[in-house]
Amino acid sequence: MENEFLSNTSIICYSDKEFEKSNFSAISEINLSEHPADVKWVNTYGIRFHESFKKVIQQNKLDDFLIKLLGDEEHPNKVIVLDNILFISIRVLLTKSNQLESEQIIFIVSADFLWSIQERKGDYFNWIRERLVGDKGIVRKKKTAYLLFLLLESIIDNYHETYQENAALNSDKLNSENIKPTPEFTSLVEKRKQELFNFKRATISLKDTIIKIEKIDIDGSDTKYFGELKEQTNNLISNIDFELQELESKINLIFSIQGHRLNEVMKTLTILSVIFIPLTFLAGIYGMNFVNIPELKSKNGYFLLLAVMAFVTVISVWYFKRKKWF
User: What residues contact residue 156 under an 8 Å CB cut-off, 6+ apart?
Assistant: First the structure.
């Protein structure tokens, strides 16, 4: 298990003049207090290396409470301030998954190191590594708070990009001109609503975490950057809410179309019923088996009854036309 932990753990040390990326061959090499002038970004893929985490924490004399925190594999989003260390746990949507599954990401932050622990391999942080390698921007001139800001910004940007891609894909399918009151169309709308609810829940949870981080004061850390992240999450939530309202309007329109069609059917059936009720009444009267029905002896009784029925039908149709029922 220790070898697996080491193979899934790497470190990037950087300052405004230097950069070095390396791996570890032994846990004893993980010295987070060495070269305090440099910023150290340690990254681990996997959250089940409990014994290895414990050794790293103890040999670097970090807060023992981290052992308990890292022993729990399932955390809700939380921010905990320890002895000059910030523990951040968030659940991040895996946007490449069709089912929008989530993974646990943990950040352990101090003034001179940041340790990111990810549940699965692969992340959204390659552009940050490229900036560090190429000394682009100001990242190598800043401390761990700015690195944490970039990591969280990368997650939010990925949410934005995935949301916009999905919105573009669904815009044609769910276009107002293509609205059809069919189970297939309704299913598409409900599926999109569920995706948006997942995005909104994850974004709100991330926003709450950012607000907590913004209020924390740690020695050597500057949290002024996180106000921008809060605005980005607000914008994404606003976009999601706007699309949810549009989808709700489309569902209401579908129900209105279905109701209108049902009303048309019921109106047609009602008109036919009103026309044929008096005809049925007349046919029922003269279909009775009484001997003394005067009209039955009439030579032209049959034709007279047909004429009366035709007259009743014409009058009924004229009346409905006048009332604009059809």
Answer: 203, 206, 229, 232, 233, 236
